[in-house]
């Protein structure tokens, strides 16, 4: 099976197979952002089978905290806990990659200092009750770029094999690339090329930290969402132009965040070509592309690996932490959450209640 083929990333780091655990927020860290014991158990349970575990998003500064119980990577005092997390993933036999992030205008005000949410521009998200954020000053932008570099240094010191820059799912990097949330007319905004400036400066800062601090190959991935529904909003054409530039940045992979691997454009009802195929066709010869989205069975993953070299699995590994091991031994995998197996699959509270109370998010066994 293709799933079990090894893969050498451009940095030289070798993955033992083609499947990664998708980054998933677990609400399990301590209030100060430090790693908790139940979080270590949760990760250990799903590590081992996959080539690499992508952790939940970790905030790079206090203003970027977007979830209760979020893991932090914004202070040196958090490094000992992060070290335990990397070690517990390694002990099971998977590489460990931490996702670094800033939530921007999507942060709940009560989670950030002085309720002061920020973004590229003072434009609220299009959702009920969204607060209008404050446009970041140039100094804050420069500092945030530094914070992504400093977070990368902490990831290296904690023993992670890499970082994934979270440029997807409507958070700060996407907010700068988006014509909806970025209406700036300084060097950080403008046309589609100019709107790449902030994410590219973050990439540069992360790369610099790796050059200065890593003494062995270190993975740098970039996650992006290819489209937005808003008008104006990110289009496939914008994303293909962005992918062209990202493909020249010596990244280890581009992770394309989609809820269904094969989905076509959500802005164009007549579109039929899967977005992932368009991106792979455009830049797949320059940078490895990773797909994701509702791939529950081994057959679906095998089929996806005909298009891209890497895939990540999210909910599948919540439902069945032994997914890879079972596929390897030709056993059938669970594709629906069994509420009676909460303890066996190790999804501690409050994660269990948070994910199970959102209708239709996690497929549930009748
Ligand atoms: C509980 C949960 C938390 C998530 N948190 C994150 C996150 O922190 N960062 C991120 O990039 N995506 C996050 N996602 C999205 C997943 O990485 C993935 O893209 C999505 O679940 C679709 O893949 P799947 O069908 O394999 O679950 C989360 C998804 C779930 C189910």
From TrEMBL:
This is NADH-dependent flavin oxidoreductase. Keywords: Flavoprotein, Oxidoreductase. SUPFAM superfamilies: FMN-linked oxidoreductases (SSF51395). It comes from the Bacteria. InterPro entries: Aldolase_TIM (IPR013785), NADH_flavin_oxidoreductase (IPR051799), OxRdtase_FMN_N (IPR001155). Gene3D superfamilies: Aldolase class I. It comes from Halobacillus seohaensis. Residues 13-330 form the NADH:flavin oxidoreductase/NADH oxidase N-terminal domain. The lineage of its organism: Bacteria, Bacillati, Bacillota, Bacilli, Bacillales.
